[in-house]
Amino acid sequence: MTLSALSPTSRRRSWRTSLVLVLLAPALASCRPATPVAGPAGPFTARDSRGHSIVPAPLSVQLAGGEGFTVDSTTQIAIAGGAPPEVDFVAQQLFDMLGLPVTSRPRRLVEGEMPAPRSIALAIDAGNSTVGDEGYELNVATDRVTLAARSAAGLFHGVQTIRQLLPVSVEYPAAVGRVLRMPAGRVVDVPRFAWRGAMLDVSRHFLSADDVKRYIDVMALYKLNRLHLHLSDDQGWRIEIKSRPNLTVVGGSTQVGGGPGGFYTQAQFADLVAYATQRFITVVPEIDMPGHTNAALASYAELNCDGVAPPVYTGIRVGFSTLCVERETTYAFIDDVVREIGGLIPGPYFHVGGDEVEKLTAPQYRRFIERVEGIVRARGKTMIGWGEIAPANISASSIVQHWHNDSSQLHVARGGRVILSPAKHMYLDMKYDSTTMLGLRWAGLVEVRDAYALDPGTYIPGVPESAILGVEGPLWSETLVKRQDFEYMAFPRLAAVAEVGWSAASARGWDGFRLRLAEHGPRLQALGINFYRSGQIPWPR
Ligand code: TNX
Q1: How far does the centroid of ligand 1 lie from the alpha carbon of residue 476, in Å?
Q2: What is the topology classification, in CATH, of domain 11-189?
Q3: pLDDT per position in the chain (541 positions), as tens?
C-alpha cells in the first residue's frame, strides 16, 4: 500500500500519523463479532469457539481464514520512525523469537518510507484511545503484519500475541524446516487491570537468579507485569544490604529444612530487575515486617527487645517472631533496608509484608505500620502490605493486598486500592487435589478451575471494580525446593491468574479457557516447564 491510497484529508496529516493510519487501515473497519474459523487457517489443534488459543483472551479477535502470513527469510521487521528506544528492544526480541536471518534485522524506517511488502511493522500510535497504556492492535494480512500501540509495553504484549498465533515450533528456535504461519485477522486488546502479578517466595527456599529469570520469561508470555519477590521471612534473608552485612551472612545462610539458603548480591538483584524491566515487568520487593523476621533477628541482636539474637529457624511455623517495635534501632534498620533496596529498583513500590503478627498488641502493630509507611514514603516509594495493615491509619495512596479473612475493605473505605490474592483462588502453593505431593492445603484444594473462577469485580462484597488494582498469584515455598517444584505448582494456574487479570469479563469463560489452555501444554513443554497435567484440561496427545 502507498500513501496515494489514503484520502486527501489524511494526506494532509504528518507523515507519521499517515503511516500509523496505513498500518491500521484494516483495524479502522467496524468491530464485528468474532467469526469461528473452520479449516486449517491457523496452527491450532485445540481452540475455543473463536478459533484461537491466545491466553489471556484478547478483547476482540477476528480471524479471517485464508492463507495467513508466513514468516520466512524474506520477512523484514520495520519500526516506524519516532518510536522510543525501548521499541528497538521489542523489535529485537521479535527478531530473536522468529529466528530470522541477519538480513531481516529490525530497521527503523526513514521519514516518508513505507514498510516493504512482507514486513512485520511496529508503530507507536500515541493518539490511539482504545488500547490504553498497555494494549495493542494487531492486523495480520498475507502480505504484511502491522502492530500498533501507544507504548512499547503495548507492542511487547502484541509480540506475545504474535507468538501465540504462531505454531508451537516458534518455541524451538533451532528447529530445522519449521513453517511459521499465522492466520490472517485482527486483534484489538487492552488489559482489564493494571496489576497482573506473580509472587515468588524465595525466602523459605532460595531460587537462583537464573531460575527467577525463567519464571519472568513465562510471565511475559502471559502478559503479567508485576513480579513480587518475597525477599525475607523467618527462614531466610535473600538480598545483600551493604550497611547490614550480617543479614546475608547469618540470615541468608539457611532455609526450610536446613539447606544452604542463599541470597542475591545487589549486582545480581539489579541485573534481575533489568531483565524484568526489559520485559515490561515491574519488580516489587517485599521485606516482611514486623513479623516473619527471625532471619533478621538472628542477624542483629539489637532488633530484639531483649537484645539477644535467636538462632536461625528452619521450620514452617508462622507468627512467632517480631522486630522490637519500641526501639529506635529498629526504625534505623528499616530505613537502611528501604533506602538500599529502593535504590536498586526503578519501580515505585515497596512491600512491607505486615502479615500474621501474633506478638504485638493491635495499637503497637498499627503504630508500627504507620511509622514504616512514613519511612517508605520518605524514600520515594508507595507502600504495599498484606490485608492486616488496612486497620492502621495509612494513606489512601498505599496499597493493600488481600489474601485471607482480612479487612481490606477498610482501605477501600478510605479511597484506597486493593490487589486481590485470595488464597482459595490465587495461592499457587495450595494443592491441586488430594493427591498433589507438593504444597499446602489450609485454604482448600485449588484446581485450575478454582483459580480461574475468581471474578475480581464482585469478589469482596461492597468493593467495586474501580477499587481493585488487579490480581496476583503468590507462590509460597515451604514445600518447594527446586525450580521444577515451583513450576509444577505455578503452571498452568498462573495462566489462569493472567487471564483473570487481563481479560475483559466479556472475553472470559471457563469452557473457552480450558480449550485454549490445552494448546499451551505443548508450548510449556517446549519451554521446558514442568507443569501439572490437570485432568480438567483436554491436553492434546
Ligand atoms: C500465609 S499469605 C502466609 C505465608 C505462608 C502461606 C502459606 C501470607 C501473607 N502469609 O507466610 O507461606 O500462608 O500458604
Answers
A1: 7
A2: Chitobiase; domain 2 (3.30.379)
A3: 222 222 333 333 343 444 444 444 443 333 333 333 333 334 444 455 558 999 999 999 999 988 999 999 999 999 997 899 999 999 999 999 999 999 999 999 998 899 999 999 999 998 888 999 999 999 999 999 999 999 999 999 999 999 999 999 999 988 988 999 999 999 999 999 999 999 999 999 999 999 999 999 999 999 999 999 999 999 999 999 999 999 999 999 999 999 999 999 999 999 999 999 999 999 999 999 999 999 999 999 999 999 999 999 999 999 999 999 999 999 999 999 999 999 999 999 999 999 999 999 999 999 999 999 999 999 999 999 999 999 999 999 999 999 998 899 999 999 999 999 999 999 999 999 999 999 999 999 999 999 999 999 999 998 999 999 999 999 999 999 999 999 999 999 999 999 999 999 999 999 999 999 999 999 999 999 999 999 999 999 8
Check pocket membership of 240 for ligand 1, CB cut-off 6 A.
Answer: no
The residue count of the chain comes to 541
Distances in whole angstroms, Cα of residue 458 to Cα of each of 26, 385, 463, 485, 530: 36, 22, 7, 32, 33
CATH 3.20.20.80 domain locations along the chain = 195-505+514-526
Q: Record the pTM.
A: 0.92
Q: Does ligand 1 have an atom closer than 6 angstroms to the CB of 316?
A: no
Domain with CATH 3.30.379.10 in the chain: 11-189
- Is the shortest distance between the CB of 318 and ligand 1 below 6 Å? yes
- DSSP assignment of 130-177: SSTTT-EEEEE-SSEEEEEESSHHHHHHHHHHHHHHS-GGGG-TT-SS
The CATH number of 195-505+514-526 is: 3.20.20.80
- Give the mutation target among 318, 420, 441 for probing the ligand 1 site: most ligand atoms within 8 A of CB: 318
Distance 368 CA to ligand 1 centre (A): 20
Question: Residue written as cell 485470595?
Answer: 422
CA of 478 to the centre of ligand 1 (A): 9
> 40: closest CA among 142, 184, 139, 186?
184
Catalytic residues: 356
Closest by CA to 428, choosing from 401, 411, 403, is 403
Peptide bond before residue 363 is cis, with ω within 30 degrees of 0: no
